[in-house]
From TrEMBL:
Domain of life: Bacteria
This protein's record includes keyword Transmembrane: yes
Record's protein name: Uncharacterized protein
Region (Disordered): 240-259
Alphabetical UniProt keywords: Membrane, Transmembrane, Transmembrane helix
Comp. bias regions, Pro residues: 246-259
Transmembrane segments: 7-27, 47-68
Amino acid sequence: MSKKNRAIEISFVVIAIVAVWNLQLNNLALDIAAGLGFKEDSFGQEVVVGIFVPMVVGAIAVVAQYFYRHVGWRLTAKSNNCQGSWVYVLIAQAGTEEFPIAGWFKLTQDAVEMKIDDARAYYIEPDDLLFRGDWTSDTIWLRGKELGIVFAMRAEGIGKEPIPSQYSGFIQLRPRIADRRATPIWTGHFHDLGDRTGVHGPIAAKRLRKAPRGDLEGVLDEHVDELRTVALRIMGRAGTRQAPAAVPPGPRPPEVAES
């Protein structure tokens, strides 16, 4: 969490405590003690007041902090909320070969952290999406309008994925400045890491306005051509899924595309 968001969170908690304190907690505690049969200025009354007031203040602080981290932070002017379901297309370049990959991911976010526990990648075939593998990310950051994702890919869908089939990579995205759509497209680049260093390419992604029910593969198919065209334009080209298919990766040292 940034220092600015931390200051806002602390202020939010303090305001909540002050607001509750104005409800005259001491008087309420005295009423509770009297209801329990303790006389005024008795030891029992002091115990009830001494326990009740701190307990309520602590509970309010916890609830206020939870509310801010999970709900309230989105109301701030610069909350940069990226939470939700995303779809993407990237053009993987591995040496002289290249081929398109499509996928989706579900990004969860609060005031403290961002992560992706559910994501999937597909090879884009001329008339279909062919399952490639799953990936996750626990390292995500948002600086200004730049979204960075370090992912862990587990390719397991088809036999043309050479060893190693588990590896890491990096995605960098920014919203297109000139994009005035209701759901703007984010563009950037990805880079594989480790043994796949050198595999890279452009990526285009879109955060869906509404979280769809069930599997995202059907929803992804509706956006593949649009996102692939944008990714190709980054390379100075244009085309859709119906364009001539890219050369698929054959057996070779572990330099394959990313998700």
